[in-house]
Fold each of these.
Amino acid sequence: AQSVAQPEDQVNVAEGNPLTVKCTYSVSGNPYLFWYVQYPNRGLQFLLKYITGDNLVKGSYGFEAEFNKSQTSFHLKKPSALVSDSALYFCAVRPEYSNYQLIWGAGTKLIIKP
Amino acid sequence: EAGVVQSPRYKIIEKKQPVAFWCNPISGHNTLYWYRQNLGQGPELLIRYENEEAVDDSQLPKDRFSAERLKGVDSTLKIQPAELGDSAVYLCASSSGGIPPFFGQGTRLTVV
């Protein structure tokens, strides 16, 4: 079965330190990959996507993500965390055969401590 | 550009009562999605519309859930009757020409 895994329920990082939120997937073919962020009592906000090309993609709010095909991973990163980055982060994958289906991870709660 | 607008933001109802959610997608977006998100989980698709046609409703519990998108713009999602297990956040999203979808703020439903 196709799936997306976010192995960490929660990630704690000190402000100013680099952060990584992990995502791995099990989807056939060449999927599209996405990251969304959800702040408390807010909807999901699109951060960035990988479709093809450079393995390092840049998105909103200084976030970037690195695609690794051999490891089937798409980890979200930021060089210097802000307290305001504290939120819930979701990885999602679109299978190659579908224009619309998204397979979602369970989410990772990111806590940035001052 | 205005985003996806949903109302109400919060709703508390007693079980067995009906409830309806409304969504106004981003102008020009022909694809509209309704998702349900339980606490600590990713969203799960309930139904997808292409204009006014429901093209994927395989995950919609049709015994109690219904949806419509008249004129291919606004959409409503209804639950009748509501059950305790329906407590969740209901998210509407829209897109044009595929994904990624853009989400509204959601309606948090509490069934008591």
Amino acid sequence: EVQLVESGGGLVQPGGSLRLSCAASGFTFNNYWMNWVRQAPGKGLEWVANINQDGSDIYYVDSVKGRFTISRDNAKNSVYLQMNSLRGEDTAIYYCMGASFDYWGQGTLVTVSS
Amino acid sequence: QAGLTQPPSVSKGLRQTATLTCTGDSNSVGDQGATWLQQHQGHPPRLLSYRENNRPSGISERFSASRSGNTASLTITGLQPEDEADYYCSAWDSSLSAWVFGGGTKLTVL
């Protein structure tokens, strides 16, 4: 059974940092691109970033460039999202998504508020 | 970044057919087609169709996707109560090097 389990969300003040983790199981992790997708409360989906199989190809949505960093550890079947200089508009559920939208985690809530 | 355009809401009767649309441009939908996702309230999205009409195993044949130019469509036949959900399209935008989403369509089954 495919599982993606996110962790690391929580309440953080504006300007603060958080590191999200996503642990994958049930599929050959190092064969697939991995993504982070977020959803603000009551809003639609927004793609955040992705990383290719060996970490050599990475893309970001414009609004997080220079603030967020995606990375992966294939030995640990995990993908990460380091989020710095957080803003109120970053408040959302962050989903880990794998392959071609096939695999989704349950999401972890990030709240940026003072 | 430019997104895709979806109607905010569609309402259809039980057992009827609904067609949801998603409009992009030649760099997104017109290039490699659209991916369609279904999301029920409080749950993560579920893949329905990936680029054109590649349906994952376990997805009902009642869901079919197509594309004409820069507009993609998702057709749902024989509407059931459980089809009531939010539907999102997405496409890789080659000019932005980014995945873009539509704003979502809320489907109501009357």
